[in-house]
Design goal:
Layout lengths: L1 E4 L8 E4 L9 E11 L1 H8 L17 E8 L11 E4 L20 E5 L3 E3 L6 H21 L7 E5 L5 H10 L3 E5 L6 H6 L2 E5 L10 E6 L6 H8 E9 L11 H6 L3 E4 L5 H13 L6 E5 L3 H9 L6 E5 L1
Parallel strand pairs: 8-9, 8-11, 9-10, 11-12, 12-13, 14-15
Antiparallel strand pairs: 1-2, 3-4, 3-6, 3-15, 4-5, 5-7
Amino acid sequence: MKAWHFTGTHQPFTKVEVDQPTPGPGQILIQTKAAGICHSDVGILEDEKWLDIMELPAIPGHEIAGTVVAVGDDNTGYAEGDNVCVWPMGTAGKAYGYSRGGGWGEYVVADIEDVLRIPEGVSFELAAAATDAGMTSYGAVVEAGKLQKGEKVGIIGFGGLGQIGARIAFLEGAEVYVAEVNENIWDAAYAAGATKVVKDITELSDIGLNLIVDFAGFGTTTAGAIQAVGYEGRVVQIGMGKLESTIDTYPLIMKHVTLVGNTGGSRDAIANVLKYMASGDITPAIEKTDFDGIAEGVDRLHRGEVRGRLVALY
């Protein structure tokens, strides 16, 4: 089958031919129909720290949606032709696209505990976005952020994840504020339910934000969130634009701020996002490419040329 390989930091993704995987007991074989392209796919090319969780050569692509084409046994509960998506964290502790084969291949084997059915009316590209952008956003805002209805929530970055996180916060009953440097997408932030949109989160320091979720993580944004959040506020760090940040511990201590790092979310987080997508309450901006355009898509993401979530359709 055709696949993209990652062989090491600072090495380009390469197109290869590899053997088609075979599902074992408790597994299914999925023909990939859509696979997301994420900022972390940019990160693995640039930062050696990613190698700690990767088995090389790796087939990246942790946002997977497709159709079941084979089952490992008769007890999977799935049949050929079922449309499914995959929880990227992996019940077995092996993340898809990192320590096991991901969606940047024509076929991928998944454990049935990691699989969710795609609801009627949800496209493959939306389902692929739900598995990471949706899961991570829900996990950050609701699960790690412990959002309560009526709270004031700040969202840093209105990109592929932030747009979904802001919308989830609004749908869960929060008063939403967005910090986004690109003024061209401010209208989209307001359309998602934002009360106010600014360039820098510190402009919202007088709002009394209960929770700030940093979907950017570009070095200074974490410090800005700690400065802007209200007394006994919570800051959830999701963005990994840079893997280091310098923070001012004075407001962290004096305001009794809780700073939490979080990756991903639960399988239930994906299920909840899929329900919102099926109802039409969440319709994130998605740009599409094809299998051959994956490497160029990563470059475009790196250059900041993508609005929303970038998904490759096969």
